[in-house]
Task: structure prediction
Amino acid sequence: MKVLMFGWEFPPFKSGGLGTACYDLSKGLSNQGVDVTFVMPFAPEGVNGEFVKLIGANNFSKNVKVRKINSILTPYQSSTAYDEALHKVRSKYATGSKADDVYGKNLYEEVYRYSLVAADIVSEDHYDIIHVHDWMTYQAGMNVKQATGKPLVAHIHATEFDRTGGNPNSYISDIEHKGLTAADIVIANSNYTKNNVIRDYQIDPSKIEVVHWGIEPDNPHYGMCEASPFGTDKTVLFLGRITIQKGPDYFVEAARKVLDHVPDTKFIIAGSGDMFERMVNRAAELDMLDKFVFTGFLKGKDVHRAFQMADLYVMPSVSEPFGLVALESMKNGTPVIMSKQSGVSEVVTHSLKVDFWDVDEMANKIINTLRYPELLGELTDNSFNEAQKFNLDEPASKTKAIYEKAMSIMR
Result:
């Protein structure tokens, strides 16, 4: 079985959980003999030959090839961020060449250009399935489906309603709707996401399949046993994009309540995003800036170090379609307080769960966990043991079965 897969990012060139999920899924499919060609945009100044070698077929798997399209699209990119990236590209043209000859004049034109260029790849080989990940790739998938008649599987990791706290960009939500409608089968990464897709896009529930994410069972970074640099102080971690979807503001408000009861606590905010400055200012307003550490964006082994340094990880997401980061925390031996508004809460038993908006309850759970070593120890052991059941084979097997179902529909 040969799959043409379109995605935003692929490790090590990634900025969030989507890249990790695509990598893990591709690896799991490869283990089951599925031949995957993964097509992604890339920024020339951010990727070189070494990067291609790192994730190329020879080093990743004989069944996975990575193809790159000349593009400055990046995950979670806003129109403003695209304009800034285009400006930087233009500034590199010293001879008067026009960057607009290569890239689109705005984000939406670039997504359309990407769909045309990416779809050309289909003429180079035969594929059985087209698999697209999230809105930037949906148009490319629709173009290939129209050109080849092959079945289209649309993977939805987060809707535009999730990303914006219920205030979608109409252009993006329209693309999502068209892609989900055109797909023969939709894969949602949780029942939470499936219900959101049904509610926001009125997609037929019978064509939506749920595949919860797994996680790489073995990783050398899990065993680093990084010690906290804060001595005997308790450490509570937020790790994720600092955006409205991830709920960093609820984390900061809960922190103020925690410090009234457990003053020897440090709060780490690891990530970047458009709410970064607002969170720093709010911590200052609440007179607790000395209790906060803002690390900026972390990647690679530094992510694992952050988990291992922390006593507790809090995921207060307003809308979290899955939440792979919670499984990463558990694999690193750090227990989790997670939002009930998340897909991962459907499959994890040994964690504490709270509504994202209930700051009082979030603070109570943090306080009790930090105050009572027995509770913290039991939660740590149980969540670590539970994390061992997650792997790459189960979601890959379910996805392969979905491919076979889609192919049978088209016969």
Residues 43-61 have pLDDT under 50 and may be disordered. The longest strand covers residues 35-42.
